[in-house]
Amino acid sequence: MTSLEKRYPASNAGPGPREESDLEAGPSQETSPVLGQRARGEVHRDGSTSFWTDLFEMGKPRLSSLVLFTVLAGILLAWIGTGRGHISDIPPALVFHTLLGVMIAAYGSAALNQLLECESDKKMERTKNRPLPAGRLTRTQVLVYGMLCSVVGIAEVTWFAGWLPGSLTALTVFLYVAVYTPLKRKTSLNTLVGAITGATPPLIGWAAIEGRLSAGAWILFAILYVWQLPHFFAIALFYKEDYGRAGIRMLSNEDGDGRLALGQITIFLLTMLPVSLLPYLHGMAGEFYLLVALTLGLAFLGFGLYLLREKSRGAARRLFFASILYLPILLGVLVLDSFQLKG
What we know:
Largest sheet: none
Radius of gyration: 20 Å
Distance between the termini: 58 Å
Structural class: mainly alpha
Number of strands: 0
Strand content: under 5%
Number of domains: 1
Shape: flat
């Protein structure tokens, strides 16, 4: 047994993106490495959950809420950046239907993802109590629910926001379900593909406002893409044995002593620093954002270096927790500073 394997014993706990914390960024019915206990829906006295609660949980609501946050950031930054007026002048119907459509599509793609991964989920401590592997929902129910939500969500975004955001929504669903999900059993490079799906939501929001994808939209995409990699690699280390039992190929499973996975985390955390400064360099935000981005980036890197030194599950958990705080703070400050600069 390698030194890293000794430090990462099998876990009985059980965590996107945003994947997904699943990590996949925080699936709703699994134990979070941060919270340490199952996040469950309505529980009856006999320990069962209702049919509608199970359907709700199939959508990974915590992950979906992060997706909606990034879509909203794209909407607000596109409106401010294109000088279309005060932020209060954004058409509320456009915002509502874009967010609702993306949310419905996200629920559908999450359900289809779990349908394809049902057998793997049965073997993992952190996912075996999800509604499908636990037998509370049938495959047919999940298939109908997933397909219906995906089609309705894409249609709503297309109808109310336009063909470009609708096409981006459809592309995201396709990549997540038909490309990323099967790749998880074929190659450890699946994370690089999965991060694309987690980085497209702000593009949808931006396109809903501007009707095209200008430089600001791609800057948001870059921030989301790079952020996800240390986020997911940390969770993969935390649940190394769990992934191994399920046959899901992650870098942490194929890297015996863990050096490659830890090295990738460090590389992407270093990359995150200059990428997070792009909004300032492009004129999307001012010096306040610059200061916050530098501070957050150095702190984020510090957690990564701590993991590199300690090589422990506790350090991986801390890095995951830091990543969860990092993104909403960074995007929130970006929106606020952009409003102060241009609003």
